[in-house]
Design brief:
With 168 residues, this protein is mainly α. It has a single domain, classed as Orthogonal Bundle (Globin-like). The chain contains eight helices and no strands. It starts with a helix and ends in a 5-residue tail after the last helix. It is found in: Cellular thylakoid membrane; Membrane. Keywords: Antenna complex, Bile pigment, Chromophore, Electron transport, Membrane, Methylation, Photosynthesis, Phycobilisome, Thylakoid, Transport.
Length: 168
């Protein structure tokens, strides 16, 4: 797993360049938000079950066809799998905050996810909507705790962009 520092250095090293003002500013920004990143991760870790439950309730209230016969979350097993996956996305988003990099999402979450969901006939659109709901809940909780939120969107937006489907 890469972090903001190793990714930056790797990119400069591969082109044979010294760190310039842009690189130094990126490093400075990463270090200035370091405490907030860890605080946000700790806060959400302590409330993860409640966040996932709230996100699931919101998703299924907004998209009730998902829990009706034929829906992606119909049956207890599929419903539980949906909540498990939301927890998975949330956990890896917190890893991404702390690392200051989205590589962990590409390596551990997104690689092969679309193919897996398609092979299991799981609709990707609701997954994207659910990730967006998670983002809004998390952002509100972190802001409510008085923690900086400038880095919160990045991992969620990255997952949404990479999955990139809104159809239900």
């Amino acid at each position: 797993m890469q972090d903001a520092i190793t990714t930056l250095i790797k990119n400069y090293d591969s082109t044979g360049r010294y760190l310039d003002g842009v690189a130094i500013d990126r490093l400075k920004s990463y270090f200035e938000t370091g405490t907030a990143r860890v605080q946000a991760a700790a806060l959400i870790n302590g409330q993860a079950a409640a966040v996932v439950k709230e996100a699931g309730s919101t998703l299924f209230s907004d998209q009730p066809e998902l829990i009706r016969p034929g829906g992606s979350a119909y049956t207890t097993r599929r419903y539980a799998a949906c909540l498990r996956d939301m927890d998975y996305y949330l956990r890896y988003a917190t890893y991404s905050w702390v690392a200051g990099d989205t590589d962990v999402l590409d390596e551990r979450v997104l690689a092969g996810l679309r193919e897996t969901y398609n092979s299991l006939n799981v609709a990707i659109g609701p997954t994207v909507i659910g990730i967006g709901i998670l983002k809004e809940i998390v952002k509100a909780k972190v802001a409510e705790a008085g923690i900086e939120t400038s880095f919160i969107d990045e991992p969620f937006d990255h997952m949404i962009r990479e999955l990139g489907e809104k159809d239900i």
